[in-house]
Design goal:
Keywords: Chemotaxis, Hydrolase. This is protein-glutamate methylesterase. Its EC number is 3.1.1.61. This protein starts with a strand and ends with a helix. The chain folds into 3 domains: 197 residues, Methylesterase CheB, C-terminal domain (Rossmann fold, 3-Layer(aba) Sandwich); 47 residues, no CATH class; 79 residues. It is built from 11 helices and 16 strands. By secondary structure, it is α/β, with parallel strands linked by helices. A 7-stranded parallel sheet has the order 4-6-3-2-9-10-11, sandwiched between helices. The protein has a 4-stranded antiparallel sheet with strand order 13-14-15-16.
């Protein structure tokens, strides 16, 4: 007989405080390994293990590639690397970014479900947008348990809310309740998987191989989904549209992946960047025409100077309209973000 011996946790904004509280109450004799992805900056020399070790009774480390998974250990994905479960080993790989993150939550969740099946417990904590949702769906499909932090208690509620939209049977718990339930679930004996249980959807396996930068899978023309009309924000390639139980995702040929929410956020960012570039070009153009008008005036070319001044005035008016539009867009985005996180 087996127990649930793999806990995978995903967190983003507000995650350090949440993880410190959660890990601080896990017992030293926990009969499971804990794997954590926290969205962080990509710089080397992360202090996350040291920070979490101050709160935890269990050893906390950044694993190296091909580290063997051991019960009673906490493994935190290192900066700029995906952490992927491959049998009893952890792969630490600089594969394609997902939702513009590396490490990302979904590759960990998908790979854990593929290797450990019903022995996995997936936990989604505080964060923005919806990273972790697709992976939690795979965990539940493979018979694993799903826990989502109560959005009302999360510092950033978007990630838990999105997870619950797609995995409505997940347990919704406050931070103090999650360690208690993890302890109960890891102590519970579950039946061994049968051969039928081990038959699984090929798609999560394919996507795990892509995250591992497996070239045979990346070059495979039988990739999941179908071509969309959208370009990858990371590399400009065609995005393939993938839909699972109404949850829409996209992945390009080289493996960059996005949920619809993340893709929409990136498109808004690209539009805003282009508009700011246009505003800069207008301001520079107006300035140039004013300088040309001054020189023409100095050379007593009054008619030419007047033409340059008119052009500068027209461009300045266009720049004002664009600037006002950008201010309104930014205000609307701030209101939308506040509503999503309320």
């Amino acid at each position: 007989m087996a127990n649930r011996d793999l806990v995978v946790i995903g967190a983003s904004a507000g995650g350090i405080e949440a993880l410190q509280q959660l890990l601080g109450t896990l017992p030293a004799d926990l009969d499971a390994a804990v794997l954590i992805v926290l969205h962080t900056s990509n710089h080397a020399g992360s202090l996350l293990p040291q920070i979490m070790q101050h709160a935890s009774k269990l050893p906390v480390i950044h694993p190296e590639d091909r580290t063997r998974i051991e019960k009673g250990m906490i493994y935190i994905a290192p900066p700029d690397r995906h952490m992927i479960v491959e049998g009893s080993l952890l792969r630490v790989i600089q594969g394609p970014r997902e939702n513009l993150h590396r490490p990302a939550i979904d590759p960990l969740f998908r790979s854990a479900a593929s290797s450990f099946g019903r022995r996995v417990i997936g936990v989604v904590l505080t964060g923005s947008l919806d990273d972790g949702t697709a992976g939690l769906m795979v965990i539940r499909a493979r018979g694993g348990e799903a826990i989502v932090q109560d959005p009302e208690s999360a510092m950033f509620s978007s990630m838990p809310r999105c997870a619950l939209e797609q995995v409505p049977d997940a347990q919704v718990l406050s931070l103090p309740e999650i360690p208690v339930e993890l302890l109960r679930l890891t102590r519970e004996i579950i039946p061994e998987e049968t051969a039928a249980d081990r038959v699984q959807d090929i798609q999560p396996i394919q996507e795990t191989k892509i995250a591992e930068f497996d070239m045979s899978e990346i070059e495979n023309d039988g990739r999941p989904g179908h071509p969309s009309a959208f370009a990858c924000p990371d590399c400009g390639g065609v995005l393939w549209e993938i839909e699972n139980s109404g949850f829409l995702r996209f992945r390009c040929r080289v493996g960059h992946a996005f949920t619809a929410r993340h893709l929409g956020a990136e498109q808004r960012h690209a539009v805003e960047t282009a508009l700011w570039s246009a505003l800069r070009a207008l301001e520079e153009s107006a300035s140039l025409y004013r300088r040309m008008a001054d020189r023409a005036t100095g050379d007593n070319h009054d008619e030419t100077a007047e033409q340059f001044e008119e052009r500068a005035s027209d461009i300045t008016e266009n720049a004002r309209v664009l600037r006002d539009f950008l201010i309104r867009v930014n205000e609307a985005n701030e209101e939308r973000f506040a509503m999503e996180e309320s």
